């Protein structure tokens, strides 16, 4: 689960970065659109200038044409003037009237010519001024166009960088998404397993409850019938008995302290992170310690912040001691909880630490306000943070006072009356809520300050990461203080409830009386334990549980084992019968063999006595002797039928045995019996061992078969998971290809647009150059004229 929370925090950070980059992209898009609008307006202005230039060229052409007409007229007038002068010279003697008329006309022509010359000069000046203005505007437009092209290139580079960054972030987010989907699937499977287990546990709980109810009913009926007295009422002898609600109170106290310990651990971690990141920020802003030394005030502030662990860690250690001191065999009230005093002392030392660093915090914020790039909004947020830090320190001082008051009864029992305890707990809960509100306001103002700082041009990536970490620690601090306040308010009734009380009494029990009562209870428990240890010990609980797990995990059932035992018993009985049968057969065969040997010896003796001197009789006797030996060998290898025949013959021959032969036969029978009994015992033990091995091998085979089936199921589930993972990979690959295609299409469109823009700009430049050349040529023509 820790890994899942880390992934969620990473995913949230990536989402925040994506939102910031998206906002920056929007801003850049707006800038590009504005620049495009500016370029369009400049194009319009250029068109207007071209139109005005054409108009001026037309006017210049008209003026040049008018000038040519005037020049021709001047030439005509000059020719007329010359003709008139010639005429005047010729006609000097004719009188004064024609000469006067010629002078008048010449003066008129001179005035007219002077006016035309002045008008021509004025037109040349206007044309020159218009040409100069056109050149200046053209140069300005070219400079502005080059600047806009550079800005467009820069914006395009920024857009390309953002696109690559977006692609990387999208790929990273997709990989994180896939990883989180795998995690969610595993968690869903675990959740399903947990639901199934909870259902099974609920069923077992119902069965246990029904069984316990049945046992309670049975025991209550037995108590009503068999117990002659009732000790639940108040008397002089049982006034110190511990009631059940006191034990519940003790268990509740341990549970509440355990929850409070987890909250204190989270609070300690959040405070450590907050002080550590504040120290790092002091080294970075307003002056970076890696570039230039920071102020002496911030150096001292950083030195104090570096010592925060010495004041924060003891809070967790002292509260852990408090939790360990609360057990089921103790009385947990304010008068007996001595370790609460250590927690109060450590909390007081941390409060003094906050009071010590408060002035340095305020001065450090003032230095940030005096920074050269600090704005009015940033200064206002620093002022709000100063007031928030003062409020937080004040609330910690209030909490210190209330915790010190709660720790006083453990030092002196009459330090605080019972009636004031509920008021102290109520005020403590209210102070916790106020602390949560103050830290929440400080976190909000810090977030606003961070947003303002992001807009500054001198903000580095190191400062941004440190600020984000500081905001994360403030968020965790806000959440944990809210949890502590809610937890304390929910358990306020338990904190303000009275202490230990005896049965049937409304007056709370004195802690010293309760301690003595518990001491007596421990003595009684030790006595009962000593009595129990005198009896033969039973199987320990853990060993019984392990045996039960072994029995339940075994693949053999009880019925199979009983069947195997019955089969083995039947085999043993059958083998015992066969053993007795073959023992009897062996004894009979031995007896028959001895009797036959005896009979053969007797027959040989009789034959030797009857036919003592005769060779034929000797050879016959030898033949019968060899035949008797062969018969003896055949008797040893005979079957059951031959042995039955021999038993009949032995019965016939054994009618008159001697005493010595009978004793020898009995001793031999005993030896044979003991030998075959030992042999049969060895065979039965070997048979039992082989049967047990066969049973063991059979159980192992069944277990292996079950394991193989389970492994097959696991393989099928894993193959399904692999298929799902492959499908997800293919889907993500398709999405990646589509996004790549879309981005490539957008880039191609933008490149085409840029090419078209370049073509239009080149055409406009060519038109401007041609117009300039035309204007220069016309000016040269006018000047030559």
TrEMBL record:
The annotated regions of Basic and acidic residues compositional bias extend over 44-58
Keyword vocabulary terms for this entry: Coiled coil, Endosome, RNA-binding
From the UniProt entry, list the residue stretches annotated as the region Disordered: 35-62, 85-105, 611-632
Q: Which is an annotated GO molecular function term of this record?
A: RNA binding
Please give the GO cellular component terms listed in this UniProt entry.
Answer: early endosome; membrane
* InterPro entries linked to this entry: PPP1R21, PPP1R21_C, PPP1R21_N, PPP1R21_six_helix
Keyword Transmembrane listed: no
Point out the coiled-coil segments of this chain.
Answer: 138-218, 715-742
The protein here is known as Protein phosphatase 1 regulatory subunit 21
Organism whose genome encodes this protein: Crenichthys baileyi
Q: What is the lineage of its organism?
A: Eukaryota, Metazoa, Chordata, Craniata, Vertebrata
């Amino acid at each position: 689960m820790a890994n899942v929370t880390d992934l969620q925090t990473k995913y949230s950070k990536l989402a925040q970065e994506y939102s910031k980059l998206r906002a920056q992209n929007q801003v850049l898009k707006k800038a590009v659109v504005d620049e495009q609008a500016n370029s369009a307006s400049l194009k319009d202005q250029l068109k207007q200038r071209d139109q005005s230039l054409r108009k001026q060229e037309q006017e210049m052409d008209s003026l040049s044409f008018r000038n040519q007409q005037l020049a021709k007229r001047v030439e005509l007038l000059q020719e007329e003037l010359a003709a008139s002068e010639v005429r005047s010279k010729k006609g000097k003697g004719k009188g004064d009237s024609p000469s006067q008329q010629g002078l008048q006309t010449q003066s008129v022509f001179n005035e007219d010519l002077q006016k035309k010359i002045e008008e021509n000069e004025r037109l040349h000046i206007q044309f020159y001024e218009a040409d100069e203005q056109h050149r200046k505007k053209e140069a300005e437009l070219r400079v502005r166009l080059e600047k806009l092209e550079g800005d467009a290139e820069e914006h395009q580079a920024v857009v390309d960088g953002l696109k690559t960054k977006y692609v990387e972030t999208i790929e990273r987010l997709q990989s994180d998404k896939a990883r989180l989907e795998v995690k969610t699937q595993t968690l869903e499977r675990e959740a399903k397993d947990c639901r199934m287990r909870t259902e099974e546990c609920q069923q077992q709980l119902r069965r246990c409850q029904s069984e316990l109810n049945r046992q309670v009913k049975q025991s209550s009926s037995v108590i009503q019938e068999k117990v002659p007295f009732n000790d639940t009422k108040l008397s002089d002898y049982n006034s110190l008995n511990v009631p059940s609600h006191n034990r519940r109170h003790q268990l509740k106290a341990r549970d509440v302290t355990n929850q409070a310990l987890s909250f204190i651990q989270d609070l300690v971690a959040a405070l450590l992170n907050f002080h550590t990141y504040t120290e790092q920020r002091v080294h970075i802003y307003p002056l970076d310690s890696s570039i230039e030394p920071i102020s002496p005030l911030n150096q001292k502030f950083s030195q104090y912040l570096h010592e925060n662990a010495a004041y924060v860690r003891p809070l967790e250690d002292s509260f852990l001691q408090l939790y360990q001191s609360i057990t089921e065999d103790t009385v947990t009230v304010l008068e007996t909880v001595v370790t609460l005093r250590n927690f109060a002392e450590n909390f007081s030392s941390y409060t003094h630490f906050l009071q010590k660093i408060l002035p340095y915090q305020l001065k450090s914020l003032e230095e940030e306000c005096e920074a050269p790039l600090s704005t009015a909004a940033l200064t206002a947020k620093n002022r709000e943070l100063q007031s928030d830090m003062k409020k937080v320190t004040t609330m910690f001082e209030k909490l210190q006072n209330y915790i010190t008051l709660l720790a006083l009864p453990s030092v002196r029992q009459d330090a605080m009356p019972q009636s004031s305890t509920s008021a102290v707990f109520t005020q403590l809960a209210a102070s916790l809520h106020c602390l949560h509100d103050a830290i929440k306001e400080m976190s909000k103002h810090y977030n606003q300050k961070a947003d303002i700082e992001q807009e500054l041009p001198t903000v580095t990536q190191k400062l941004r990461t440190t600020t984000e970490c500081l905001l994360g620690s403030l968020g965790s601090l806000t959440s944990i203080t809210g949890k502590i306040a809610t937890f304390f308010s929910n358990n306020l009734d338990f904190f303000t409830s009275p202490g230990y009380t005896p049965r049937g009494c409304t007056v709370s029990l004195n802690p010293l009386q309760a301690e003595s009562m518990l001491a007596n209870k421990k003595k009684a428990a030790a006595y009962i334990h000593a009595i129990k240890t005198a009896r033969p010990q039973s199987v320990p609980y853990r060993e019984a549980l392990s045996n039960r797990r072994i029995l339940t995990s075994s693949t053999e059932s009880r019925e199979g084992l009983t069947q195997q035992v019955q089969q083995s018993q039947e085999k043993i009985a059958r083998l015992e019968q066969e053993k007795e049968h073959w023992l009897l057969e062996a004894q009979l065969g031995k007896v028959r063999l001895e009797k036959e040997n005896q009979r053969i010896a007797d027959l040989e003796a009789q034959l030797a006595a009857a036919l003592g001197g005769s060779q034929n009789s000797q050879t016959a006797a030898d033949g019968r002797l060899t035949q008797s030996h062969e018969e003896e060998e055949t008797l040893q290898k005979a079957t059951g039928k031959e042995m039955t025949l021999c038993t009949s013959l032995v019965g016939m021959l054994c009618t008159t045995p001697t005493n010595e032969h009978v004793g020898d036969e009995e001793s031999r029978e005993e030896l044979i019996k003991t030998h075959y009994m030992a042999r049969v015992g060895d065979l039965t033990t070997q048979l039992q061992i082989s049967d047990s091995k066969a049973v063991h091998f059979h159980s192992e085979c069944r277990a292996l078969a079950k394991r193989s089936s389970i492994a097959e199921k696991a393989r099928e589930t894993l193959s399904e998971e692999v298929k799902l993972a492959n499908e997800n990979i293919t889907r993500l690959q398709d999405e990646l290809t589509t996004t790549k295609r879309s981005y490539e299409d957008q880039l191609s469109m933008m490149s085409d647009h840029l090419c078209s823009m370049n073509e239009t700009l080149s055409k406009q430049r060519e038109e401007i150059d041609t117009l300039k050349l035309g204007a220069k040529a016309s000016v040269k023509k006018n000047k030559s004229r």
